[in-house]
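Task 17 of the worksheet. Students: predict the tertiary structure of the chain below and write it out as structure tokens. Keep your answer in the requested format; marks are given for formatting as well as content.
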Amino acid sequence: MMKKKKFKLKIKNPKRLLIFIGIIIILFLIVFASKKENIKQKDYISLIVNNEDVTSKLQNEIIIKDNVQYLSFEDIKNNLNENIYQEGDNVIAISDRKVTYLQLNKNKLQINGSTIQITGQMFKTEQGKLYLPISQMQNSYDIEFLYNSEYKNIVINYFSSKLEKATLKKDTSVKEQMNNSSATLEKLKKDNVVVFVLEEKGWAKIRTSNGNIGFIKKKLLKDFVIEREELKQENSITEEPKNKKDISKSNIKKYKNRKSIIQQIIKDAVNKKYNAIKIVYSKDKETDEFKKFKLEATAMLKENGITAVF
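Model answer:
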């Protein structure tokens, strides 16, 4: 009976093979590590509002022209301010205490009736999209505005929102997700200061000075400081004011007329030292013109320390 021959792999130089395999493994680890630490590059501009990335919610592109950053009317209404409306080719934007009036293709805006010269101007695209110079409207909305061209980030934070900062204990990488293997957004150095947003599962969601929103281990942060508390809404008055102003016979269809009436109410209230006033309107209060008047009057009177009651 014939014996089966055993197959033996003969390696002429096993030591050289081991060295070769070792080199392959080292190269693989180097490539993998460098790939993991590559900083993520973007081909679009991100919009960060109150430390939340709202880029995916935008309906139109962000436009940058002559170093001015523009957002479309629709995107401002959907992501920044629902109390914004058009009146012909003009736009009125209402914030807590301010009424901003913009005219098409004009390098100026009005805030509570006072004219301010600006670098940019509201314009329409060839497709008819209306764009506002959001970077020129910081006073309109009482916002902190930052644009970083390197990382392609626009950051908008309201001064009424909470602001907490912390310092890095050592060099680290900001990750896109709560995972060390996720994309690196930015590399930070020891003692860099970041905005602390929240903590989850041992990770800290942060915003860097370049506007990147990402994650690092919370244990890498120290010296937490709350620089600004969230501004609470003021309580409304409980009793109806004795002082009244009847605007039932006034023409409030156009902004120009509404502004004039409101400014006169403010003047009278300041002279008579009223801190609240009842505005009477006996016509249909569901019309667009009265809703606009109510928004505009509430903001402008509040800026002057006067509560409007309707």
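Marker's comment: Residues 14-37 form the longest helix (24 residues). Residues 77 and 206 are 26 Å apart (CA to CA).
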